Amino acid sequence: MRNNKNSPFTLVPYYLWIALFVIAPIILVVYYSLLDLNGNFTFANYQNFFTGVYLKMTLSSFWYAFLITVFSLLVSYPTAYLITKTKQKQLWLILIIIPSWINLLLKTYAFIGIFGMSGPINAVLKTIGIPEQQILFTDASFVFVAVYIFIPFMILPIFNALDKLNPALIYASRDLGASKLTTFRRVILPLTMNGVKSGIQAVFIPSLSLFMITRLIAGNRVITLGTAIEQQFLVTQNWGMGSTIAVFLILFMFIIMLLTGQKEKGASQNGKAK
Amino acid sequence: MKSLVRYTVGIILVCAVLMYAASVMDQTSGKSGKDILTIYNWGEYIDPDLLKQFEKETGIHVIYETFDSNEAMMTKIEQGGTSYDISMPSEYTIEQMKERELLLPIDYKQIPNIKNIDEDFLDLDFDPKNKYSVPYFWGTVGIVYNTKMLKGQNFDSWDDLWDPSLKGKVILVDSAREVLGVSLNSMGKSLNSTDTDELKAATDKLIKMAPNVKAIIGDEVTQLMVNGDASVALTWSGQAADMMYENEDLTYNVPSEGSNLWFDNMVIPKTSKNITGAHKFINFMLDPEVAAQNADYVGYSTPNKAALKLMDPEVVNDERYYPSKEVRNNLHVYKNLGKEKIGEYNEFFLKFKMSIR
To answer: A73 CB near a chain B CB, below 8 Å?
Structure first.
């Protein structure tokens, strides 16, 4: 055992880690979801979830997460593509990553000032003759701030996929007479699909459970599952209901992971002909 | 295996050395021994100069921590961990904390300054004979509004919030009992209603207000009102006082149908390790000069009648901060309704929030 580097013994810490920090918490969440306020066993929380309010909330969470993901993708794909064309790729990448080092709450508070009636955006609007607009506490401002926060997480995987793409494949496609659009549609996009999928996972799933900015930017006009969990734990102190919502969130995550799961024959393998 | 053992021993040794170093550093900074007092208070809720004065007078070292909700505070005290000596919960939380036996009784022999407190604020339902709590501040829930932006409105009735002219203007506080309280009060019902039908009716009435609601937020409202980004908000009296101090166009009114009267109180949690020090602190805070200075800094209303004489008469005679006894009869203190009813309030509040689109 002493000299065998691949002995199963070396994996024990990882199994322990997974058991303690992945499996045990999930079991605890499921356990709590089956308790009522007085700690008795019940299915009432699940029944409650399927009443109007929570279903409506789930739908609206999905709708906003969908919007956030789509807009992030629309911004990120071209950006990632342009970065691969620049000379200082790493520099540009760092510039995009740096904002994600700043505390989320701090960035959100900054947006309260920017979107305010006396903020810079309204000042610009005024100088070009447009009357002041109510920007804060609207759907648009909420989606904008969320997209701003998630963009780095979408750009990185797409950039990696694009960067690994073998340029020879693109030249081949051109040589064989494909137009730019066809090359993109038939060669580039399919080969970078795995990057897009990872990006979608990294944005869609956290968007479902966004909270704080729903209050600070959307003024609680948008309520996500994350907000509801926060309320149940901190205000109502109904850990059972909070856990039930969390169980559904975990389920949704698994479904999304399955739908956007990686197939082994990805871009990286095909592109590694270098 | 040998190297594994060596690593483990090495790590344990390093930890031991670090722990020793930490304890030595604690001692040199005077943080050990009996004379520390750990205070757990709301944010922006004490004049920091007074803490220094207390340290100087008594030689007790104060550690000051803050919380932002009663529930979070109670959870932390229940879990133990930190030995808080003083905390300032609101009245309905005191009832809960009493039930869970989280509080130590107060020995009034050590607090002669209790005589300075107005008798109206002693021996209330939430803590008979003030066995566990001493009043710290009190206040009301009402409406703060911008008189320049909303001409002709005076919000003498809660129903004014439903006025169609306020479309997209009203800011509410993100708290179930305060918001449901608005519509309960407007219908002449009790703020402590436990009747599901009444709560349902109150929610239905609130949903009719939805088009008027601009946002449901927390403390951020202060800045919005001060900057003129918003014109009317549901808020607590002390927060309104902060806003009015910054912007003269703002004023505060408690609608005539009645409202909530609340108290924050000093208590000694059972986690306390310096019970004598805690009593000294409570007695110190009840000193008229100290209480006056603190009320001046914090902006909420003090229950200390001896302190009122030392304060700016303009503030003390201002009905917005110190409503007359008649008005106060119309104000009601929240009762602890129990977890299930609070859950129901929050479910109804959630339903209302979902209707704002």
So the answer is: no
Sketch out chain A's domains with CATH numbers.
Answer: 54-235 (1.10.3720.10)
Task: Tell me the residue type at A270.
Answer: N
Compute, in degrees rounded to 10, the torsion defined by CA atoms A248, A253, A254, A256.
Answer: 130
Residue carrying the six token digits 């201002």: B318
Q: At a CB cut-off of 8 Å and minimum separation 6, what does B123 contact?
A: B129, B130
Task: Report the distance separating Cα B83 and Cα B101, nearest Å.
Answer: 15
How many C-beta atoms lie closer than 10 Å to residue B324's C-beta? 8
Number of H helices, E strands in chain A: 15, 0
CATH topology of domain B34-137+263-316: D-Maltodextrin-Binding Protein; domain 2 (3.40.190)
Is B92 annotated to bind ligand? yes
CATH 3.40.190.10 spans which residues of chain B?
34-137+263-316, 139-261+332-354
3 state SS of B213 = strand
State whether A219 and B217 contact (CB < 8 Å): yes
CB B283 within 8 A of CB B110: yes
Contact A53 B215 (CB under 8 A): no
Q: Which has the closest alpha carbon to B295: B281, B284, B311, B306?
A: B311
What superfamily does domain B139-261+332-354 belong to in CATH?
Periplasmic binding protein-like II (3.40.190.10)
Q: b/e map of B233-269 (b: 16 or more CB within 10 Å)?
A: bbbbbbbbbbbbeebeebbbbbbebbbbbbbbbbbbb
Phi, psi angles (nearest 5°) of residue B206: -60, -40
B193, amino acid identity = S
pLDDT averaged over every residue in chain B: 90
On whether ipTM exceeds 0.90, the answer is no
Q: Is residue B22 pLDDT above 90, yes or no?
A: no
Comparing B348 with A37, which gets the higher pLDDT?
B348
Q: Could you tell me the pLDDT band of residue B32, with boundaries at 50, 70 and 90?
A: very low
Q: How many CB pairs under 8 A join A and B?
A: 78
The answer to whether the annotation marks B57 as part of a ligand binding site is: no
Q: What per-residue confidence (pLDDT) applies to B314?
A: 86
Cα–Cα distance list, B67 to A24, A27, A159, B108, B312 (Å): 29, 30, 43, 27, 30
Give the orientation angle of helix B176-186 with respect to helix B196-209, to 10 degrees. 90
Would you call B350 and A53 a contact, using CB atoms and an 8 Å cutoff?
Answer: yes
Contact B223 A220 (CB under 8 A): no
Q: How far is CA B171 from the centre of its chain?
A: 20
Residue A219, chain B, CB below 8 Å: the answer is yes
**Rounded to whole angstroms, how far apart are CA atoms A259 and B77?**
44
Mark yes or no for CB contact B343/A228 under 8 Å.
no
Q: B residues 227-246 near A, CB within 8 Å?
A: 227-229
Query: Using one digit for the tens of pLDDT, what is the confidence trace for B62-101?
Result: 999 988 788 888 888 988 878 899 999 999 889 989 988 9
